[in-house]
Amino acid sequence: MVGQTKGVKSFEELHIFCEARGLVSDLWKLSRSGALARDLVLVNQIRRAALSVMSNIAEGFERRSRPDFARFLVIAKGSCGEVRAQLLVALDQQYLTEDQHATFCARTKQISAGLANLVRYLRDSKHAKKRSVGTTL
What is the pTM of this model? Predict the structure, then answer.
């Protein structure tokens, strides 16, 4: 993934942003029907947490500062954990099947790992000399 960030001009080009966007879309679809759709508190919370992952990637990138971008990616990573916790609630309430739960948890773990890798890249001393992001990634 680190190699994929070179020459990136917008957050929409980031692989990790595309993965987070896909997660948001799929969680929205999942939460529109069935028993989960009737639990408005949980639906609202899980949607907001997933949206936070995607939004923090975008906001951090637009700050055009490596330290700020890294900080927002860490926040996005925390939101991945929040989504996983809420997926456990959905599983416990039998709103999700075991397979659905496993699939969504695997995706959030993959996104979380990608965020951690990007943070490491941004904080790496040999790359950190360039303080702005965007075309310098």
Answer: 0.87
